[in-house]
Backbone:
């Protein structure tokens, strides 16, 4: 925690985040990044589940780099929040759950590209994705929605009054 | 201001403010549904701008039910949040800017739907310059709506009308 804080202070992130418009500005970027992720990865997931048949999944997948950019933006802006006030996050059950969901989503992405992407890429325009890919799409949508929910709940649990669910 | 104070005094408004689950579920619904409203726009606008050009443009309409359902959820949760703190948003000029940005973006959506999405001729053709301009403007307006929405938490001059009158 000290390491986070001193990094933030040494790099000027801390000062920027505590300036008049630093925090709200970075928050806005965090919401923009979220929309990029839902708009590309989320939309691709919806298609795999069976919505908007007729759009080739392969073609829709071309949007995903924009989602990766949104994800990158949110890792960066997220790091700016956490490193500036680490005690508000690291002991916060909402933040811990958020990280866990991001972890599951991350593993899900790796498994998807390793085991399920090839048939999805080759599928016809009207096809539904194979079962494995559909399950992974549902996991992805659930995780990312859960990540937004937990992100919003961070301000609901303010340490030290709520350390964690299991304490 | 008296009217806001009256709303704040209703038991529903009080409950929205004082019940954590009521307030936070509205806030969460507003954020998640916003993600899907703006998300479907991101996908459609990027496609109009030429990204993922092998997507048949007219079929992007098939994602619109997600957009409309989410928009209803955004509006509903927005009204609930307004019920909790009516004066906080309604006395802030930025709130009207946010509403204007959302309405303008939705007008662009309507216009692009009529001009472009209902014509399968654009499925494998680059959209005209004017449409691409509108798609870029749409993305900009959504970013402006998000930013002004976020700033509402920081720029209000009145939290509760009953504390002023």
Residues:
């Amino acid at each position: 925690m000290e390491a986070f804080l001193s990094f933030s202070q040494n790099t000027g992130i801390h000062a920027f985040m505590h300036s008049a418009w630093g925090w709200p500005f970075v928050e806005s970027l965090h919401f923009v990044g979220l929309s990029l992720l839902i708009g590309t990865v989320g939309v691709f997931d919806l298609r795999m589940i069976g919505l908007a048949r007729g759009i080739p999944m392969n073609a829709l997948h071309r949007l995903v780099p924009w989602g990766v950019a949104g994800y990158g933006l949110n890792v960066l802006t997220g790091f700016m929040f956490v490193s500036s006030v680490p005690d508000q996050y690291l002991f916060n059950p909402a933040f811990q759950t958020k990280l866990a969901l991001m972890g599951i989503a991350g593993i899900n992405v790796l498994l998807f590209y390793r085991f399920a992407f090839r048939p999805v890429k080759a599928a016809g325009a009207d096809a539904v994705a194979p079962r494995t890919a559909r399950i992974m799409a549902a996991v992805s949508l659930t995780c990312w929605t859960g990540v937004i929910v937990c992100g919003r709940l961070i301000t609901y649990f303010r340490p030290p009054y709520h350390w964690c669910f299991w304490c | 201001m008296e009217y806001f104070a009256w709303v704040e005094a209703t038991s529903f408004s009080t409950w929205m403010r004082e019940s954590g689950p009521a307030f936070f579920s509205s806030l969460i619904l507003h954020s998640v549904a916003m993600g899907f409203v703006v998300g479907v726009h991101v996908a459609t606008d990027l496609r109009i701008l030429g990204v993922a050009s092998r997507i048949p443009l007219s079929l992007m309409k098939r994602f619109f039910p997600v957009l409309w359902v989410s928009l209803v959820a955004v509006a509903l949760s927005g009204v609930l949040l307004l019920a909790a703190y009516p004066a906080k948003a309604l006395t802030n000029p930025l709130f009207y800017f946010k509403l204007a940005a959302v309405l303008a973006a939705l007008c662009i959506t309507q216009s692009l739907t009529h001009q472009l999405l209902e014509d399968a001729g654009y499925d494998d053709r680059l959209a005209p310059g004017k449409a691409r301009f509108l798609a870029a403007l749409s993305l900009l307006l959504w970013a402006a709506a998000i930013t002004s929405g976020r700033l509402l938490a920081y720029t209000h001059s009145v939290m509760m009308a009953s504390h002023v009158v």
